[in-house]
Design brief:
By secondary structure, the chain is an alpha/beta fold. Helix content is 45%, strand content 12%.
Length: 131
Amino acid sequence: MALTRELNELVCRVGNYAELARSDAMRDLERSVYGCDYGGNGSTTRLEAERIAQLLELRPGAKLLDLGAGSGWPGLYLAQLTDCDVMMVDLPLAALRIARERAAADNLAERCEVVAADGAALPSRTPHWTQ
């Protein structure tokens, strides 16, 4: 499915927001409200993310698909918390670059895959993500 002009403009705006969310002021605000600083976290608190990990029974070797991953929250946090693997899927390239940088900084690059794709039209599976 080709991106419509309107959707493409929206993706660009979200990508610009991802860059803005990396500012010191925004990260300070995010830490005080949500308890983390992933650069715009979609309103999930750290405690809520930890509960999600429990409900999904995430563990080493488990595979988590984070659709609409943005800059990596909560997928990267859950991977760090539980030692699971994570595939982060989204459209804004700026946000995905931030997520990839965060994965590297958190030593998660080996267990993290970043894919630019529409959640409604996912690319075919890669061999290591097949169950």
